[in-house]
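User: I need a structural model of 2EXR domain-containing protein from Oidiodendron maius for a docking pre-check later this week. Nothing fancy, just the predicted structure tokens so I can convert them on my end. Input:
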Amino acid sequence: MDPNSKPPFGASSRRQVCPRVPVMGSYLPYNPWEVSYTLPAVNIPPRPAVTRSHRTFRHPSPTIFPLFPLLPAELRVRIWSLAAPNKRVIEIRSWGSTRRYTPIKYSVHPHCLPAIFHVCRESRIEALRIYKKVAIGISAATRIEGQRYVDWEYHPANPNCRRRMPIGSNPFPLATPQPPTYVYISWEHDIIYLGPEFQPHLLMIFLSAQGERMELRGLRYLALDRKLWIKETGMLPHALWNLRKRNLSEIIVIPDDEKRCLTDRWYYGKHEITMRQPVLGNIRSAPEEWVWANSFRVTLEEWFGRLWKDHNFGERKSKYQKWNDKSGRIVDDEQLVKEMEPPKPPTVRLMSVTRNGQKMREYTDGVSDIKKAMGDMQFWKTWTPSGRS
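Assistant: Understood. Predicted structure tokens for 2EXR domain-containing protein:
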């Protein structure tokens, strides 16, 4: 109804003034014929003022990189090569004895391949370039042509054989050699660890094999457990001397691995082995062990430096004389210096080992065991290989 129109018949002709009430923020004349609805009140929080802190977005680090396939191929390959783990530890174990009829078997600890083997085809190609498939145990897996062999399961020299085969009189035939174990190894990154399950009496046979039976041809980093330094102190220098022709960079001594044989958890279960620098927190409790460990390292480095230098200098000198006497080859000064320069002997380090982050025993206890067995190391200071003075 229009408020400015005339009132209906019978109504007062006096004009009524409609009160003005606020509706939605504005003042309108009151109209009784209109129906209005009141919306429920909504509490809207005030909008904060935009400051410098609100403009900074802290997102978590992304787990995917969608633009990776768009990178140049050379850059992608470089990234895959950097993704390869550094200082991965491969533990070698052995079983058997040096008796004539007992076969010798070498194996590695259960472990997982690096992740770059499984990401994509491109990463696997780069992984196969870095890691080579190496046979471990070829020194014990070689068969003699024309020789008769019997499986160890049925061999008469096996005290636990299921069913003895009628062989006849002695000598018995040899036991069938165990096949080698194959593992992917990167000689530039991986550490070969002869751990507590490696038999000490097989150390000389394993490291001294030559020719086609040579083990670990590209060996760079070798770690030896405490037991190998305690039980085979007489044969260990000969075994290390046989590595003089290898490009050996580092010898690592592990004093704190499992004292006895490994438990089933570590023997059969997959786990990661890590080698770290020993913690100096308990140096006050056993200061003599720490001092002896340092002198032990220095003595071994002097031993390697003395024998590596003498051996390689003699070989290079005879080679140079052969060039001048027989072939008449003229060698310039730079090449002569390069050929006559002895290679750098391996460094020696004492490190602590963990399995899946778990410590096996105290570091100082293992050093004390080695100290009791080796004493003042006078044997190493005066040791020379057989046939040399």
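Before docking, keep this in mind: The first strand starts at residue 20 and ends at 23.
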